[in-house]
Specification:
disordered C terminus, mainly beta, 239 residues, single chain
């Protein structure tokens, strides 16, 4: 179906998703100029777009992955879901205050906005992030591997699933023996403090740990609390 026909059909009912993906578009279609405010859900993935228009004021879901975007519009205040992975983004707009789901992996992001208070799922692996915002208090799922993180926020109290591999979260003493698992940290409690030497000794004896089950007391080092360890972790999600 041609771009013209796709837009004509959408204009008959603008409550439906506007799907203009995989059409090798290099610029925003002329037929949509002045009509952007009507769009509530847009899929423009797998094109060659370098920009999106600024008046997508009623947009709630945006799928714009696999383009050449270097920035996003500034007025996406109603947006609840954003898939913008595999672009050339170095930052995100600062008004994503209603966003609940964000997939922004495979970009060039060095930081995220600090007002993502409603975010529940964040997939931001393979960027250049050195830290995460402290506003992620509602976050339940976090994939942040392949960045340059040296710490995680301390207020991720609702988090159920975490993948933070390929960062700089482990101390230098553990680098030689470390193995990062996909772990759930729901309802974790710090029950005791243990010295770093004790854990290094355990890891030295085993060289590597195929699973947490091999540790009798299930001790695991926490990057949030250097030198402190969790025990008796609940089995929620995959390890």
């Amino acid at each position: 179906m041609s771009l013209y026909n796709i837009i004509e059909i959408w204009l008959e009912n603008t409550n439906q998703k506007l799907d203009i993906k995989d059409l090798e578009l290099t610029e925003w279609p002329e037929q949509l100029v002045g009509k952007e405010y009507l769009i509530k859900e847009l899929n423009c993935s797998s094109n060659k777009l370098t920009y999106l228009p600024n008046n997508l004021i009623n947009l709630k879901r945006l799928y714009c992955s696999h383009n050449k975007l270097k920035s996003l519009p500034n007025n996406l205040t109603n947006l609840k879901k954003l898939n913008c992975w595999n672009n050339q983004l170095t930052s995100l707009t600062n008004n994503l205050t209603n966003l609940e789901i964000l997939h922004c992996f495979h970009n060039r992001l060095t930081f995220l906005p600090n007002n993502l208070t409603k975010l529940k799922k964040l997939v931001c692996f393979n960027n250049k992030l050195t830290s995460l915002p402290n506003s992620l208090t509602d976050l339940k799922i976090l994939y942040c591997s392949g960045n340059q993180l040296i710490s995680l926020p301390n207020n991720l109290t609702k988090l159920k699933y975490l993948d933070c591999s390929g960062n700089k979260l482990f101390s230098n003493e553990l680098v030689k023996w470390k193995k990062i698992w996909l772990i759930s940290i729901r309802h974790q409690h710090i029950l005791r403090t243990a010295g770093i030497k004790r854990v290094v000794k355990v890891l030295k004896n085993r060289l590597y740990l195929p699973s947490l089950n091999e540790l009798q007391e299930e001790l695991i080092w926490s990057p949030n609390h250097p030198g402190k360890f969790f025990t008796s972790l609940p089995r929620v999600g995959d390890w």
